[in-house]
Amino acid sequence: MAKLALALLLLLAVAACLAEDEEAELGGSASAESHRRVLQGRGYISYGALRRDNVPCSRRGASYYNCRPGAQANPYHRGCSRITRCRG
C-alpha cells in the first residue's frame, strides 16, 4: 500500500512539473511559434499542417484529404439508425 501511495505521489509531482513547464511556455510573451510547439507536442496538429505557405488543396470546395478533380468534397456518410432518428 505504501509503494502504491509513493508511486501515485510521484506521478502527481511529475504531472505538476509538466503543467508548470507548459504554463511557462505560454507565458505573457508567447509567440505563435511557441504555441505551435506546444500543440505539436500534444499531437493535435500534424507536421504537414504546421508547414508555412502550404495549401493542402488549391481546388475551391475540394476536400483537403481528397484533392482529385471531381472528387466528393465531404465523403463521410453516417448510416441510418434508430438513435439518429433519420428517415429513409
UniProtKB/TrEMBL annotation:
PROSITE patterns: PROKAR_LIPOPROTEIN (PS51257). Residues 1-19 form the signal peptide. GO terms for cellular component: plasmodesma. GO terms for molecular function: hormone activity. The keyword Signal applies. Keywords: Disulfide bond, Hormone, Signal. GO terms for biological process: calcium-mediated signaling. It holds the Pfam family RALF. Belongs to the plant rapid alkalinization factor (RALF) family. This is Uncharacterized protein. It comes from Panicum virgatum (Blackwell switchgrass).
